[in-house]
Structure formats: structure tokens, C-alpha cells
Amino acid sequence: MNAPIEAAIRYEDVSATPSFARDVIAGLTAHPKRLSPKYFYDETGAQLFEAITGLPEYYLTRCELEILGERARDMAPSFPAASALIEFGSGSSRKVRILLASVPTIAVYVPVDISSEMLVQEAQELRRDYPRLAVIPVEADFTQPFALPSAVAGLTHTGFFPGSTIGNFEPQEACAFLRHAGRMLGRDAALIIGVDLVKDASTLHAAYNDAAGLTAKFNLNLLARINREIGADFDLENFEHRAFYNSERHRIEMHLFSKKRHNVSVAGRRIEFQSGEGIHTENSYKYTVEYFIALARAAGWSPLAVWTDGENNFSIHTLAFDNR
Q1: What percent of the chain has pLDDT above 90?
Q2: 114-117: which pairs have CB atoms within 8 A and are 24 or more residues apart?
Q3: 241-264 mean pLDDT
Q4: pTM for the predicted model, two decimal places
Q5: Other CB atoms closer than 10 Å to residue 146's CB: what's the count?
Q6: Paired sense of beta strands 134-135 and 106-113, if any
Q7: Residue 265: beta bridge partners?
Q8: Is the CB of residue 270 less than 8 Å from the CB of residue 29?
Q9: Which of its termini does the chain have fewer beta carbons within 10 Å around, N or C?
Q10: Is the peptide bond preceding residue 149 cis, with omega within 30 degrees of 0?
Q11: Rounded to whole angstroms, how far apart are CA atoms 38 and 13?
Q12: Integer Cα distance of 322 and 183 in angstroms
């Protein structure tokens, strides 16, 4: 079963859109200033993030790959015969390849991502390596409503949401996303989701303040993207990356702090920055297993299984959607 992949199905031109400009202006005129982490992932940002996942300090990808390598066969019951796998925020195909190699009942793979170049490239390589698998990429912002391809109608759907991306949502937003995902995936759906766990602050600090400075480049690239796509004049030398653990809220916070008082023009708007003023660019919430299960239940999902790596740094949950 094959499907053309020369171009991804597009539900929105997710780069240089009016919504991007609106969100940026709204965020930079808010108090405190903020920008959505979903806009990190232009082509440069996607490449930088892929490099970050290989850093020694960045334990998340390493731990998740460990769990998938050891437990992928145990996840097979989530994939009945001729099922469809829908991955939210697919990026690199390293993780899904482990599932595809271990679960032969997956008939269709639908990667959904905001970064079109990586999306199409990874889909082409998967189609080459798995010629019997239909690969139908969808270029979309998975945090917003989008339709699944007609080719998966009538198949049982299993969602895949690795990387602890769920941690980028506020808890109430995470609950809303999980509820939306369940309704979109439909009857008898399952979800395999990676969730980072609460741990010591020093490990977390190192993961988001790597010695090579790649996370800083990744964070600052958001300003470069705004310059390039909506006509801003940010001088990146005027900002510095900072990430720290907020122990009260169990989350890493990433910010860009202004080194001096100055003004920036953004899409024709004058934005003033005070010395030391920050732009909040990302949160990464850390969960206990028990708290995440409670969150999933509130969103209409029932826990089936949970696995952690050898040091209990990271978890992968399988959930079943409650159709009632």
C-alpha cells in the first residue's frame, strides 16, 4: 500500500503566515513578553534541535530510545491488524523506525509536523526503507485542528507523541490537547506518549544549558526567524539565553534576556526592551508517573502500561481512549 509523498498534505502555510506575525506581536506586547515554542521549528531550528538530541547532557532522547529499543514489542498490542500510526510533531524518524521494525501490523504512517523540509525528506527515506508501508506526511501545526488523510479512514488509529513535547503545554493545555487527540484519533484509539520525569535540578539545568551552546543557538534562532520572515531587526547580540528549573511548578523555563535597554522594530511595530527584560520562549514540565496518569484520565484516556529507563529519568505511557 503506497501513497505519493512528493509533497506533504498541507493544511496551512505554517511559515511566514499572518498568524505567525499576529502571535509574535501579541507575545512581544504582552507583560511579560512571550513567544510560542512551536515557532522554534523552521528548517534551521529543526536541524539545531536534532543536533541537541545527540548532546551528552540532553538525556531525554537517549533515555526514550532506550525504552523504545527494549519495549517496542510490548507496545505491539496497541496496533491491531492494518492499523494507522499518526505521529504528532514527527521531526526525525529515529524513534518511529524502532516501532516500524517491531510492529508489522502498521499499514499506514502519518507523520505530522510544522517543518516541511524535514517532513518530506524523512517520509521519502521511510518509503524507500519500508516499501509496503504507506507514508502520508501532513504539514500542519498539530496544536491546531487538522484532518487526517482519507487513506486512514476505517483503520484503527494509534497516536505517537514522543520527546516529552507534552511538557511544552501548560497542564490545562496538555489536558485539552490529549482530549482533542483522542477525539481526532477516534474509536478504539491508543496513544504512545513520552513524558519526562521529575528529577534533580542539576541534571535538568545541564540538559538545557549545554556546554556546546547549541540550546542557546536554538533559542536565539527564533529571533533570527522573526527577522527573516516578518521584517524585524533584532540584533541577536543584544540577547542571551537562560534556562532554569522552576521547582515550585516542576518545569524548566527558557528565556531570552535583553542585555541593554533598546528598541526593536517588528512588522512595523516598535517594541521596547528594558535592560534585563526577558522573553519567555518555552516551558518544559516534568511529571511524576502518577500525576501524568491523572492528567490523562481527566482527558478521557485510560492507562494501559508505563515503562521507564534504567535510571527512571524518562517514561513512555500507552493509553487507550475512553469512547464513552
Answers
A1: 86
A2: 114/14, 114/38, 114/41, 114/89, 114/139, 114/140, 114/141, 114/142, 115/41, 115/42, 115/43, 115/45, 115/46, 115/91, 116/8, 116/10, 116/14, 116/15, 117/43, 117/46
A3: 98
A4: 0.92
A5: 16
A6: parallel
A7: 270
A8: no
A9: C
A10: no
A11: 14
A12: 10
